[in-house]
Amino acid sequence: MEPGWMLRHVSYKLRYTLHHVLVILTSSFCCCRLAHHQMLLHGISTLLFILPPKRGKKRWRQY
Q1: Mean pLDDT, 10 residues at a time, over the chain (63 residues)?
Q2: Can you give the residue range of the structural domain that contains 50?
Q3: Is 7 left (phi over 0), alpha (psi -120 to 50) or beta?
Q4: DSSP characters for the chain?
Q5: Among 19, 26, 22, 24, which residue's Cα sits nearest to residue 11?
Q6: What's the rounded Cα separation, in Å, for the pair 29 and 31?
Q7: What is the pLDDT of residue 25?
Q8: What angle do CA 45, 51, 56 make, to 5 degrees?
Q9: What highest taxon heads this organism's lineage (predicted)?
Q10: What gap in Å lies between CA 4 and CA 14, rounded to an integer?
Q11: How far is the CA of 45 from the CAs of 27, 32, 37, 57, in angstroms?
């Protein structure tokens, strides 16, 4: 194998992987921006569901 061909191959692979990563990042970022609000609401609701009972149980055990 010639070193020039190898360099070209490696650079092509790097460019391909970079492009792939960029595409994934941008798509996930767009999805996240759309789903972020939903995720926040979901997380807050789950936290509200999970936290108060545990606190209540702990208080009940203490008293």
Answers
A1: 77 86 77 66 72 54 53
A2: 1-63
A3: alpha
A4: --HHHHHHHHHHHHHHHHHHHHHHHHHHHHHHHHHHHHHHHHHHHHHHHHHHHHHHHHHHHH-
A5: 19
A6: 5
A7: 79
A8: 135
A9: Eukaryota
A10: 15
A11: 26, 18, 12, 19
The CA distance from 53 to 46, in Å, is 12
What is the rounded CA–CA span in Å between residue 19 and residue 27?
12
Output the six-digit token pair for 36: 């972020």
- If one counts the domains in the chain, the total is 1
Write down the residue that tokens 């490696």 correspond to: 10
